[in-house]
Amino acid sequence: MHTNATIAISTDGLTATLTLGGETMSVVIADPPTGAKFSQLPATRYASDPPLPAQPAGEDADQDNGDTTVLAIELPGGTYSLQVVFNPQWAGSKASDFVTPPKVAIGDWSLTSHD
Fold it and tell me: Which of 19, 37, 43, 91 could lock 65 by a disulfide, CB 3.0 to 4.6 Å apart?
């Protein structure tokens, strides 16, 4: 996830706190698979990324990302189902105000499946 927020990752790597403009948001990997953890990466292209499309002379298709960074989830190789919960931390709220929604297979999603 690209963000301009300051990222603080918990020591276990399962929670990230994003701070921007005096506001915060908690991001949690719910029911994480073994080896899952958050990391922070620069918002830059990798040598293995596909080439950018040709640009007119004097123009650069790859613009500087400024203060943008990337909140990533590192996982060992394999197939996973991940649930990531984003909880804005509003003034006056407490941890017990936030409830992790139930895990529902995509094929079973409906308007009420996550109530």
Answer: 43
